[in-house]
Design brief:
By secondary structure, the protein is α/β, with parallel strands linked by helices. It has six helices and five strands; from the N terminus they run βαβαβαβαβαα. A five-stranded parallel β-sheet has the order 3-2-1-4-5, sandwiched between helices. The radius of gyration is 16 Å and the shape is globular.
Length: 160
């Protein structure tokens, strides 16, 4: 049985993230979306909010679960006995960065492989940073994130 982990901050969840999750769910028996608990990052949404957003959007995918983790991904992978890391890649710059991390993880544990899924062309420009930038200026984010997240994101900027 193949168990893959798709790690990230998902702050906020975008259509690009969802595309990778849906495609990975077709490839692997089990996909674990692992939301990183990173206290050094100034997140727009709390860890619980990010998890609930992903759970809501992936409820139709029976082989996808959403968890939180902290520390080194490689340690978490060993703990849950997963052997594949999923990474979405949009650009050559993404690949260069992700390649270094994949090689480092492989040096730490040769039983763990990284699989790169290139983003769908329609999402190749999209990042959580872009969503936050547009939202902070009141821009239209309807093509970036699921409909039920739009109001939640806008409220974060009105409250801030």
């Amino acid at each position: 049985m193949s168990k893959a982990v798709y790690p990230g901050s998902f702050d906020p969840l975008t259509f690009g993230h969802l595309d990778i999750i849906e495609r990975a769910a077709k490839i692997f028996d089990e996909v674990i979306v692992a939301v990183l608990r990173n206290s050094s990052k100034n997140s727009l949404f709390s860890l619980d909010e990010r998890v609930s957003m992903i759970v809501e959007e992936t409820k139709g995918l029976s082989n996808v679960t959403v968890v939180t983790f902290d520390g080194l991904l490689i340690d978490y992978m060993r703990k849950i006995k997963a052997n594949v890391i999923i990474r979405g890649v949009r650009t050559v710059t993404d690949f260069e960065y992700e390649f270094q991390i994949a090689q480092t993880n492989h040096v730490q544990d040769t039983n763990i492989e990284t699989v790169f899924l290139t983003s769908d062309l329609q999402y190749s420009y999209l990042s959580s940073t872009i969503v936050k930038e547009f939202a902070s200026y009141g821009g239209d984010i309807t093509k970036f994130v699921p409909e039920h997240l739009i109001e939640r994101i806008k409220l974060k900027y009105q409250d801030g």
